[in-house]
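Report of the visiting student (M.T.), summer placement. My assignment was to run the structure pipeline on a short list of targets and document each run. The first record concerns Fructose-1,6-bisphosphatase.
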Amino acid sequence: MSTTTSGLDRILTLELVRVSERAAVAAARLRGRGDEKAADQVAVDAMRSELNRLDIKGTVVIGEGERDEAPMLYIGEEVGTGEGPVVDIALDPLEGTTICAKNLPNSLAVIAIAEKGTLLNAPDVYMDKIAIGPGYPDGTINIDLSPAENIARVAKAKGVPVNEVTACILDRPRHQKLIDEVRATGAAIRLIGDGDVAAVIHTTDPEETGIDIYMGTGGAPEGVLAAAALRCTGGQMQGRLILDTPEKVARAAKMGVSDPKRIYSIYDMASGDVLFAATGVTDGNMLAGVKFTKNYIETQTIVMRSSSRTVREIIARHQDLDKF
Ligand code: VTB
Ligand code: MG
Ligand code: MG
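After the run finished, the structure tokens were exported:
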């Protein structure tokens, strides 16, 4: 019997868990060591070797960078056994390398698989992003409105006063104006050091995470990964590439971006059936980090699929310790 109901073979959903688990365990061994590069490198190696065992004919479209700067999991790299569905891959083996190196909350190993040609091929530039979780009327947020207006609309749609809304923003000097504007509304801000893929996912479960809306600029590749995740849970997101130099405009054009000011909806960033998995590396608001015990290693992974909107959380105990 075929396991395909629409789009991607659903069996891949569970296969994907192994890939993000493996990367997370590798990175977690280097948590809190102050060495971002080393933690990133082991996560990349681990994710790549596990990914290459999957029966897919995959191409990395959101990865570790261009071929010249990233030796592995670079954009354009072919991954998988080559036997199986033709798919595009977006990944970040360690999203939040600094968080991991400092052993702070919410670093993740992240991967998405999508139908061929359905993910935005985003250049590695900044993207202005705004995102909310499911349950809001369409059009509640709009990247062209002021931060105050967006906060007010979220509060109204949620049925709470503005001072009960919490926005999550990356703690960066470039966000000072945004932070001031949001604070002037009376809303609360959670300032994070890194990790805006996690932050966008956190908007999908405000009761658990305390985050209602994500705002601000972060990596464009992370924007596509976040959009893939939101496609699976419901939620709204818009992004706009920040192409503020002729060099960036040219780089984006080479990747097919003809309108540098275009606003991308969540469907523009991830249009087809998509599967998404994230495993916690450090403890976080939604996912626990990897636990090492004498007899097993425990991981927690969220894995989801857009066509059914099934969201699974998988706690795994790995007892074949020599394999990790
Ligand atoms: C974000 C965040 C990442 O980069 O995209 C951010 O998700 C943006 O870049 O975890 P700056 O650090 O230059 O502000 C990270 O923090 C690191 O990749
Ligand atoms: Mg990375
Ligand atoms: Mg990253």
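The first helix runs from residue 11 to 28. The mean pLDDT is 95. I thank the supervising group for their guidance throughout the placement.
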